[in-house]
Design brief:
This protein is an alpha/beta fold. The chain contains 17 helices and 16 strands. The C terminus is likely disordered.
């Protein structure tokens, strides 16, 4: 760790504005409020709420926060400079900004002469006036201003003198922050560092002790986080980004990577150390609200970030985590996972048993039996590294500790295809507590109908089944060369609203594979309800 521990880096989150521009994300007002409060709990100092006036949703968001303010974060309204040919005081867009009632406003302006002449279709002098007059007007109305220099790096490369003039206009008008924006995401870290250094040296004699610099990067070259770090190392003090890197095109700098790199690796102060362990749960919360599956391979916060699969790795990390972990997973609120697969050794099995709360010893014959069974099943196409709930059930079965909650007798599925739709119904027969139960249900597809019929058969005996629901369903053809006769692997993720777990089924019949995974999902969910069992996430 470097000796930067006394230097504060101000984190500016734009998930609610820039992040929501990502393809596939649409946040309601309630969604935005829930995310804002979670970011506030994490300790983010600046939260950009949106562009008041751009849509009714953002207007209402700021109004709601007036009645129920955040605990510590500054909510920021976002807007462009005034329109060409208008007075700032007469521009309705700026009136909407003022009505949002935030202390801080972020204004973006054009740095690249190409955008001025081609995009705005105005003169270079008018663009400077737009920047200067907009900021001065907002300052006169009691607002504090962050100036985002849009397309800064492209503008600087094409016409550096004019690009610097845009910043000088913002400084003269009273902007407190100047943020260098790599809007197209095409700049590389060494260029970011050089340009930031040149410009801050050039502007450092403006007589403004309160003037600070920030960085806003996009990920089109897969370097957004590296670019942000490069800028910080040159002296910028604000990092703008989004949770999970959401954003337009390829996304923004991922704060879930930028923050721990800056704080844990370089020693800067980004968040209260007591709040940093909330980072992983914040990441997963935002992805859940955005209705996007969490990236299991995301650094620091992903499910696989501290997962160990190879037997040698597992054995070593059990002795000393530093052998294969660059930080402690607990520092960011994550946890170590031992992955079970055909590459597993005895260390994997023992570590996984401990994780499940099962007491196994290396001399126990069960370990060898389980390892052999595991490798046989994975050879058939099963994949337990992505379905740990199924592996726990397998482990308990080999040990003779798998409770028989119900016994399957069989099922039938029928599908009708009509114009523009497919309708399905299913019947299942199960034995529960000595009683044979036959139930039928409809669904919009065979898997949906099977799931509904099985729940219907079990709910009288196990009322908690009504709380379970499928949260993800994945199908994988194991051997594509076999065509329609190929084996199919189905992974199902289930949840009871609090915990989630994944199960697997394999068969040459996709319906049968789905049935296996659904049945084990219900069985494991019921297993979690037993008072003697420790509730845990098994994905």
């Amino acid at each position: 760790m470097s000796g930067q521990s006394s230097k504060r880096i101000w984190i500016y989150d734009t998930t609610l504005r820039d992040g929501s521009q990502a393809e596939g994300i649409s946040l309601s007002i309630e969604d935005k409020l829930r995310i804002a409060r979670r970011l506030d709990e994490l300790g983010i100092p600046f939260i950009e709420g949106g562009w008041p006036g751009a849509n009714p949703k953002d207007v209402q968001f700021f109004w709601r926060l007036k009645d129920e303010p955040l605990q510590q974060a500054q909510v920021v309204a976002f807007c462009s400079t005034r329109r060409p040919g208008k007075k700032a005081a007469d521009d309705p867009m700026l009136q909407e900004i003022l009505s949002a009632g935030t202390d801080w406003v972020t204004i973006f302006g054009k740095s690249w002469d190409l955008h001025v002449t081609e995009g705005l279709q105005t003169s270079l002098d008018e663009n400077l006036a737009m920047i200067r007059e907009t900021i001065a007007y907002l300052k006169s109305c009691g607002r504090r201003v962050i100036y985002d220099a849009e397309h800064w790096f492209d503008g600087y490369r094409h016409n550096r003198d004019y690009a610097v003039q845009t910043l000088e206009a913002a400084i003269a008008a009273g902007a407190e922050w100047l943020v260098f924006c790599d809007t197209n995401g095409g700049t590389l870290p060494h260029e970011i560092a050089r340009i930031c250094r040149e410009v801050m040296d050039r502007l450092g004699d403006r007589g403004r002790d309160d003037l600070k610099f920030g960085i806003h990067t996009h990920n089109d070259s897969e370097t957004a986080v590296a670019n942000a770090i490069a800028a910080v190392l040159e002296g910028v003090e604000m990092v703008q980004g989004t949770i999970d890197g959401y954003g337009e095109r390829c996304g923004n700098a991922n704060l879930c990577s930028a923050i721990p790199n800056l704080q844990l690796k370089l020693g800067y102060r980004c968040l209260d150390p007591q709040r940093l362990p909330k980072l992983t749960e914040t990441s997963r919360f935002v992805s859940e609200i955005a209705n996007l599956a969490p990236d299991s391979r995301a650094p620091f916060v992903g499910l696989s970030a501290f997962a160990h699969k190879g037997g040698i790795h597992v054995s070593a990390v059990q002795r000393n985590p530093l052998t294969y972990e660059h930080i402690s997973p607990e520092a960011v609120g994550n946890h170590r996972r031992i992955v079970i697969s055909e590459q597993a050794g005895m260390s994997n099995v023992l570590a996984k048993a401990r994780n499940f709360g099962i007491d196994l010893h290396k001399d126990d014959p069960t370990c060898r039996q389980l390892l052999q069974k595991l490798k046989e099943m994975e050879n058939e196409g099963y994949q337990f590294e992505a379905a740990e709930a199924s592996f726990e059930l397998l482990m308990r079965e080999v040990m003779g500790d798998r409770p028989e909650l119900f016994e399957l007798q069989g099922f039938k599925v029928h599908c009708d295809r009509g114009p523009g739709m497919t309708h399905a119904w299913a019947t299942v027969k199960v034995t529960v507590e000595g009683q044979n139960i036959l139930e039928a249900a409809e669904g919009n597809g065979p898997v949906s109908a099977l799931d509904a019929a099985l729940r219907k058969a079990l709910v009288t005996f196990y009322p908690r089944v009504s709380d379970f629901h499928l949260t993800d369903y994945k199908v994988r053809i194991i051997d594509g060369s076999s065509g329609t006769s190929a084996k199919t692997r189905v992974l199902v993720e289930s949840s009871n609203g609090v915990d989630r777990w994944s199960t697997v089924g394999v068969s040459t019949n996709i319906i049968d594979a789905s049935y296996q995974a659904i049945v084990e999902g219900l069985e494991y969910g019921l297993l979690l309800q037993r008072p003697s069992e420790k509730v845990a996430v098994r994905v």
